[in-house]
Amino acid sequence: MESPGDAVRRRLPVLRSAIDQPDDVIDISPTGAIVSAWNALQTLAEEILTLYPDVRPRRPASGRVPQSELPQLLHQAGLPQSWTDVLNDLRRLRNTTVHGTAVVTPQAARDFVQGCESVGRALEKLTWPRPSVRH
Do 72 and 82 form a contact (C-beta atoms < 8 A)? Predict the structure, then answer.
């Protein structure tokens, strides 16, 4: 039987590839590319959190972990503070974009997508087997 960690690791390539956005999408709809990249990153993060039973995210009726809580939950799961800070910055940029308080250029969207891809690689490390603690 496949372990939960193996199952998540098996799905990582598909989850990660969803973060990337084609250039034509970015050029036509930079805001849409940002929303899509964030949604894919959030899905990846939520999937990884299933490997950490001690980290219990609150899941409202939507079934999604609240975005404002996601960075801290991932930090509790072992994401280094520097990556937690980057994730928080991306979350704030996504919110600014979605709520229309910023003009988004295609280059800004590309930078955002690259940031999401970098965080995704950092999150992937949370799927590696953790060393056993000996008493």
Answer: no
Cα 126 to the chain's mean position, in Å? Answer: 12
Task: Provide the whole-model pTM.
Answer: 0.87
The structure tokens listed for 24 are 């034509």
User: Roughly what angle, to the nearest 10 degrees, separates helices 4-17 and 30-49?
Assistant: 170
> Would you give per-residue pLDDT tens digits along the chain (135 residues)?
767 677 788 888 888 888 998 899 999 999 999 999 999 999 999 999 988 888 877 776 677 888 999 999 999 999 999 999 999 999 999 999 988 877 899 999 999 999 999 999 999 999 886 544 444
Amino acid identity for residue 115 in this structure: G
Q: In the chain, where does DSSP find H-type helix?
A: 4-17, 23-28, 30-49, 70-76, 81-98, 106-124
Residue 54 · residue 25 · CB < 8 Å? no
Rg of the chain in Å (alpha carbons)? 15
Q: What distances in angstroms separate CA 3 from CA 10, 91, 114, 127, one per listed residue? A: 11, 31, 30, 11
Phi, psi (5° rounding) for residue 113? -60, -45
